[in-house]
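Input structure tokens:
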């Protein structure tokens, strides 16, 4: 009643470069659209932080604007108003503003 099914033996297919081409293209696009620009931004941020000096006007990640009054290895003291000094981590500084920006606000 039950007939045995016989499977034909298929020739072994060897994977070629065309099988992996879509993955390679996706990786290249991912590299040029996401990874490379992020590395460039990180490099610029690191350079900006290393060149930061006393008297620079900056914006922190929280949006606080202030003038650098004291530099430490890991922390920076910012004067956010006359006589008001806050301490923030150096990594929290996002943007270096042109001189005189605070007076214009």
């Amino acid at each position: 009643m039950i007939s045995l099914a016989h499977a034909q033996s298929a020739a072994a297919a060897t994977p070629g470069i065309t099988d992996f081409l879509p993955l390679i293209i996706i990786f290249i696009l991912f590299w040029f659209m996401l990874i490379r620009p992020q590395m460039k931004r990180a490099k610029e941020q690191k350079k900006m932080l290393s060149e930061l000096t006393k008297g620079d006007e900056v914006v922190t990640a929280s949006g606080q604007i202030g003038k650098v009054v004291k530099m430490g290895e890991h922390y920076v003291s910012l004067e956010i108003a006359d006589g008001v000094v806050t301490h923030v981590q150096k990594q929290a500084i996002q943007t270096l503003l042109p001189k005189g920006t605070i007076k214009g606000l």
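The two ends are 92 Å apart (CA to CA). The chain has two domains: 19-51, 53-105.
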